[in-house]
Write a structure and sequence with these properties.
The protein is mostly helical. The chain is about 65% helix and about 0% strand.
């Protein structure tokens, strides 16, 4: 595992003004990849990503982190293309909403029933 390079990369990102959440996510992704393949071999990493059971959106994010990492380590890297697939959000049916309301206590059920029937926001009710 390449802990020194990953720690240096985290510091490099911090100096570059990246948010703490971005740094944590990038470091976590790189550590996970380093457990499974040699992080300093871009072709091995690309092969791992091609076989990994991850969504294309996650692969796209990881490839962005890898491109930054390889820029930091001065290793040439040609980014593979992964396209994020937008999915529709889950919208429950009216029967599912009624079942949820029926399973709640009196106070919560009354509140949710009012919101359902008036389409009000919780702050407006």
């Amino acid at each position: 595992m390449h802990r020194g390079e990953i720690a240096g990369f985290a510091l490099w990102l911090a100096k570059g003004g990246y948010k703490e959440s971005t740094i944590r996510s990038a470091v976590g992704a790189l550590k996970a990849i380093a457990k499974r393949t040699d992080l300093l071999e871009p072709e091995d990493v690309k092969g791992y990503l091609a076989r990994a059971k991850l969504t294309d959106g996650r692969k796209e994010t990881i490839v962005t982190y890898l491109a930054r990492f390889y820029e930091f380590t001065h290793i040439p890297f040609q980014k593979p293309r992964y396209n994020r697939v937008d999915t529709l959000p889950f919208i429950p049916t009216e029967a599912e909403i009624d079942a949820l309301i029926a399973g709640l206590g009196k106070k919560s059920a009354t509140f949710l029933q009012l919101i359902k029937e008036t389409a009000a926001r919780p702050g407006e009710a």
